[in-house]
Amino acid sequence: MSDKNKTPLHTNINPDEKNLWEEEKPEEESLINSESSGDESAIVPKSKMVLIKRLIKNIKDNSDQLNNLLAPFIKAEDEERISIGQMADEEFKTADSEEKDGRIIEGVFDGENMVGPDGKLYSVPANYASKSKLVEGDIMKLTITSNGTFVYKQIGPIERARVVGQLEKSADGNFSVVSDGKRWRILTASVTYFKGQAADEAVILVPKAGESKWAAVENIIRNKE
User: Fold this and answer.
1) Is the pLDDT higher at 218 or at 21?
2) CATH 3.10.580.10 at 160-221, yes or no
3) Span 91-156: which CATH code?
4) Is residue 207 exposed (0-12), middle (13-18) or buried (19+ Cβ within 10 Å)?
5) What is the mean pLDDT of residues 130-153?
6) Quick one: pLDDT at residue 102?
7) I want to staple 205 with a disulfide (CB 3.0 to 4.6 A). Which of 128, 143, 188, 216 is the partner?
């Protein structure tokens, strides 16, 4: 191919980009010379530093614009409530530092408690079990921290099946769900969370294989009456 048919290298570069490229070229040569001479004062070309500074400014401007756009929709009390909710969620999470400093025990959830390998029962907070929808047979890990705090984590959920039944309340105040002649106990905290009442329709989670005495509440459909 003749030299006449060759496309110039920078034909498609706009003037600004071309000027920037031309400005960088002598600095790059200076960078090479400084490296060869052992001078570390020009490690990053000045034009690149200018571009980095512009990028940082753009990120800050975009962040400020997003905050201004969201400000009318989020009140100060909402931010405080969300922060409290996040703290409550993290209360049951296992932190790396806690695992290192604490004692770890693995066991099986029996519907109310975690049964350890030694047969001991470890009390699982009802609110946590309800919120996590723990099912009888789930494998759990308990970390007892150095200050005596119990931190639970579900590490091996069993396969679940969904069942729809009727919510019933016994004379002693305990709740259960009945479906096709079968009855499962459920945590009162789950019923309270969904504001359920006797005769409401409940959607529960049970082990897909085998029998269980307990079930986890997935939802409750309120009876209009």
Assistant:
1) 218
2) no
3) 2.40.50
4) middle
5) 95
6) 80
7) 216
Contact between 219 and 212 under an 8 Å Cβ cutoff? The reply is no
pLDDT, greater one: 132 or 71: 132
Strands 121-123 and 139-144: unpaired
Domain ranges of the chain: 15-37+45-70, 91-156, 160-221
Residue pair 139/152 in contact (Cβ under 8 Å)? The answer is: no
Q: Could you tell me if 171 and 191 are in contact, meaning their C-beta atoms sit under 8 angstroms apart?
A: no
Q: What are phi and psi of 96, to 5 degrees?
A: -60, -40
What residue type is 76 in one-letter code? A
Q: Is the full-model pTM beyond 0.85? A: no
Q: How far apart are alpha carbons 217 and 214 in whole angstroms?
A: 10
- The answer to whether 175 and 186 have CB atoms below 8 angstroms apart is yes
Complete DSSP assignment for the chain = --GGGSPPTTTTS-HHHHHHHHHHHHHHHHHHHHHHHT--TTSS-HHHHHHHHHHHHHHHHHHHHHHHHHGGG--HHHHHHHHHHHHHHHTTSPPHHHHHHSEEEEEEE-SSEEEPTTS-EEEPPHHHHHHTT--TT-EEEEEE-TTS-EEEEEEEPPPEEEEEEEEEE-TTS-EEEEETTEEEEE-HHHHHHTT--TT-EEEEEEESSS--SB-EEEEEE----
Q: Do 192 and 220 touch, CB atoms closer than 8 A?
A: no
- Do the domains 91-156 and 160-221 sit in the same CATH topology, yes or no? yes
* pLDDT value, residue 101: 65
Give 166-191 pLDDT, tens digit per residue: 999 999 999 999 999 999 999 999 99
